[in-house]
Amino acid sequence: QVQLVESGGGLVQAGGSLRLSCAASGNIFSINRMGWYRQAPGKQRELVASISSDGRTNYVDSVQGRFTISRDNAKNTVHLQMNSLKPEDTAVYYCNARWGSNWSHSWGQGTQVTVSS
């Protein structure tokens, strides 16, 4: 099992920045990929950014060039730096880990990000 604890989030004006962090514990050596999803009211949850065990990153088009996902292996933590935030980035953000041979899911508790115009 992998457990995830998120921190960060909050309220920011458009154009501002926030950083989300996600600390992993448990069977961390089985993690294949970590990522951040978000879900806005009335919308489906979408994968925003991910980083694989070999360091490759992927981003949804809408955040490309504004968000950066990174990891601190020493602290078993993944960060999502969000710059140039827009009101449409407003959502609950969830940390996710895919682990084990079956690529099981683990989820963080979610953190609210609100961008005011």
The termini sit apart by 40 Å
Give the % helix.
under 10%
**Mind describing the biggest β-sheet?**
7 strands, mixed
| Class derived from helix and strand content | mainly beta
Bin the strand percentage: over 45%
Report on the architecture of this protein.
The protein has 117 residues and is mainly beta. Helices cover 0% and strands 59% of the residues. It contains no helices and 11 strands. Strands 2, 4, 5, 6, 9, 10 and 11 form a 7-stranded mixed β-sheet that branches. Strand 4 and strand 5 form a beta hairpin. It is globular and about 45 Å long. The model has no long low-confidence stretch (mean pLDDT 96).
Please give a handful of descriptors for the protein shown:
seven-stranded mixed sheet; mainly beta
Short description:
With 117 residues, this protein is mainly beta. 28% of the residues are buried. A hairpin with a 4-residue loop joins strand 5 and strand 6.
Q: Helices, strands, pairings?
A:
Layout: E1 2-7, E2 10-13, E3 18-26, E4 31-39, E5 46-52, E6 57-59, E7 67-72, E8 77-82, E9 91-99, E10 104-107, E11 111-116
Parallel strand pairs: 2-11
Antiparallel strand pairs: 1-3, 3-8, 4-5, 4-9, 5-6, 7-8, 9-10, 9-11
